[in-house]
Amino acid sequence: MAVESKSVFLKKGEKIPNNEELPVVIYQQVNSKDIEKLFHQHNWLNSWTNGVYSYHHFHSNTHEVLGVVAGEAVILLGGDTGESIDVSSGDVLVLPAGTGHKKVSSSSDFKVVGAYPSGMEPDLKKEDVHCERFRKDINSVPLPNQDPIFGYHGPLIEYWNIKK
């Protein structure tokens, strides 16, 4: 699998806490037919298939992986002053707890598979001027034990400095 990866650090926002300790990890060129299977093999469970909400939101109690299985979109990470990412089929985003995300635009066939480490059940938090009240919860979310694409030896393990 000739998958490319990169990481993006997001700064704390006014209405979105983000995660200043862990970067968003972006994979490109993952076989979109294998995404959900890879997630499950590597203990990223409780999966669903749909789109991405068109409003800023984050999860304070779990990390999230989003794998694009069809179409293309622009996803805004980190709130209004964050970073816009163009995604298309085969792209995967690993969002650390607290990372704001919203769909800005998409093709009509845009679909993602989402999942959570160890099948965590995500909360849904919208942008909030009092978002710092979630910082303790965000900082206490355990690190996953596997990269959602490569398992025990993937870029996420290195980017997030996960102990093997």
Automatic annotation (TrEMBL):
CDD domains xref list: cupin_YjlB-like
Domain Cupin type-1: 54-113
Pfam families in the record: Cupin_1 (PF00190)
Highest taxon above the source species: Bacteria
InterPro entries: Cupin_1 (IPR006045), RmlC-like_jellyroll (IPR014710), RmlC_Cupin_sf (IPR011051), UCP019307_cupin (IPR014500), YjiB-like (IPR047121)
SUPFAM superfamilies: RmlC-like cupins
Protein name: Cupin type-1 domain-containing protein
Organism whose genome encodes this protein: Metabacillus litoralis
